[in-house]
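**User:**
Everyone, produce one record:

**Assistant:**
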Amino acid sequence: DEASLQESKKAVLAVTNSENNVNVVVSDITTSSGVDQLVNSTIDKFGKIDVLINNAGAAFTDENGKVGVEVGLESYQKTFDINVKSVIDLIQKCRSHLIASKGEVVNVSSIAGGPHANTNFAYYCMSKSALDSMTRCFAIDLINHGVRVNSVSPGIVATHFLNAMGIPDEGVKKCYKYYTEHRDIIPSGAPGKPEEIAQVIGFLADRNMSSYIVGQSIIADGGTSLIMGMNTHDLGDVCK
C-alpha cells in the first residue's frame, strides 16, 4: 500500500540522499495495465532497467476456514495471479530492457515451494513451486541474451506478511515469540530480518559477486528446511 511504499522510499533515501534515485509507483501488478504503469514509469524516469526484483507476493486464508483441497478456486486464482502471473508479465515486459542492459532478475520465492507440504496454505506452496520452476526455465532462455535469472527462498522472516493475511499485531508477536522459543522450527533461534534477505538479493543482483550463478534459488531460512518432523523427536527416548 501507499504507506509501505513511503516507508521503503524513506529507507532508500537514507542511503542515496537523492529523490532522483527513487521512483514510487502505486499499481496493481496482477493486471496488465498495472504492470505497464510500473514498467513505463521506470523507463520514463531512468531510461533503462538493470535489475528486476519480483518481490510482491501473498498468501490468502479461506474466509470459511477451509484448508487443503477444500479451498475454492477463487483463492487459487488470487494466489497465482500475484505470485506467478505477475512475475511472468513483468519479466516479459522488461525483457527487452534487461537484454539491452545485460541485466539481472531476482525472484523472491519461499521454502514453502520445497518438497514438504503445508495443508493450510496449499495454493501458496504450489505457487512458489511454480515460481522455482519458472526461475529455472526462464534462466536457460534469458542467459542466451546475457540476462541472469535467480531467486531467493526465505523461511520465516519478520515482516508484515502475517498482518497482510489478517493476523493482528498481538497475534504476530505471539507467533514470532513461539518461533524463537522453538529451535525445532528455526534452528538458528530467531526469525530472519528483512535486511538478511535483501543482502542475498543484492548478492544475486551483483554480477561481480555472483556471475556464475544461473537459475538457482538460494535458501535463507535459519535452517528451517533442514528439519524433518521425525527429527524433532529424540530417537533415544522413543526406543527406551
Observations:
- The radius of gyration is 19 Å.
- The longest strand covers residues 148-154.
- Residues 1-46 form one domain.
- DSSP finds nine helices and four strands in the chain.
